[in-house]
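Rotation project, supervised by the postdoc (A.L.). Task for the rotation student: set up a whole-complex structure prediction and record inputs and outputs verbatim in this book. Inputs entered:
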Amino acid sequence: MIRVQQGKFDVGAEIAEVCEGDFAVGGIASFVGVVRDTGSGPSGFMTLEHYPGMTERKLADIEQQARARWDLANVLIVHRYGKLAVGEQIVLVITASAHRDAALESCHFLIDWLKTDAPFWKYEEDGQTGGWVGARESDDEAKLKWRD
Amino acid sequence: MIRVQQGKFDVGAEIAEVCEGDFAVGGIASFVGVVRDTGSGPSGFMTLEHYPGMTERKLADIEQQARARWDLANVLIVHRYGKLAVGEQIVLVITASAHRDAALESCHFLIDWLKTDAPFWKYEEDGQTGGWVGARESDDEAKLKWRD
Amino acid sequence: MNVLYFAWLRTKIGIGEETLELPEEVTTVSEFLDWLGQRGPTYLEALQDRSVVRVAVNQEYVPFDHVLAPDDEVALFPPVTGGLDGVT
Amino acid sequence: MNVLYFAWLRTKIGIGEETLELPEEVTTVSEFLDWLGQRGPTYLEALQDRSVVRVAVNQEYVPFDHVLAPDDEVALFPPVTGGLDGVT
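Outputs recorded:
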């Protein structure tokens, strides 16, 4: 399941819902990404732009890849866009499985992909100046480790 | 931070609290363990017995090991004991870091340890019969992978 | 043809979306970018470094030699910077 | 000496905790287990397979040759089955 939204998400409620009534699920791994302080101080913020439609396709596609690779009972990816303040939760990945390795590894895989390939562009502001963030090469290396 | 308690925990609130006001934290990994259905059907339950005092010492010790090994801003382990129904949340591990690998790997490490070494004993009941659960060898192998 | 611009390509060109009628001789993405660059200085500047321009047709990435169809939705944007922000 | 029993050692012996006065000749954990087994059939049965008995003294695991002190808190329990339940 994937969702791209402007509003906040409720991690506890999402985790509870992801395996509601499914008694084969024994473990739920999750990862919450938070907008960091990039040196602008805690009053800075970031605007996340995306390509509505394509973003959802790409997220749904990576969800399918994770499900094909690991034995997962459920997957949820929630990604926010728009203007976000430092400290705000920006992304949530939840993977539920009967196997803890499957849950944790697939969560890691999805987070690595989101960090590099999710179709978002970042505009950072510190109150005075602003600028578009460039791509990072070190993140592409992290993604390579998931190649078969 | 570690807690051994009988009552439920609120995953969302715990995650929010773990990095409250710490703007260097960029990612929070977590794992929630759920009481599974061991064939007794969804009406079964499990009683988790522990050694008050020693449990807390052991959990605090493994937290220190994780902090020594990974660059973590915060760690929270909450483990419940007592009578738990199938589907109930039993354990919560949260690791917060500026680095996603550190958060996810340390969470995995703690979960592997909890699965094998946490000083708890399980009594399973399906409504008619009950019995103490024996140790599992396959879990000990998972733990070996964390050896240097 | 519906054309979308994102991130600094959008802010440099000054609009997020426009409908364009392509001349018949423009068939590939590469030819389309050449033609687009001639529409004005903002286009030219935005598109001068092709190594930082990515193209999606109907919401799928395509190479520069991809052949366009009249009803395509074409999007131009910089390399994605990823969603997740907070961690290294 | 305060002695604690957990899990099936507790249910077999029938109590969770008791205070015992050790005879002088009982010094190691191993000797203590031998002495305890002579206290009655429930003790004997619970302690007959030492390979499934773990011992902690003052909340730390100890080997069977560990020497006990009068004020020790001694706990006997089966190998832990771990906390986490739901996953393999």
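Student's summary: The two ends of chain C are 39 Å apart (CA to CA).
Supervisor addendum: The mean pLDDT of chain C is 92.
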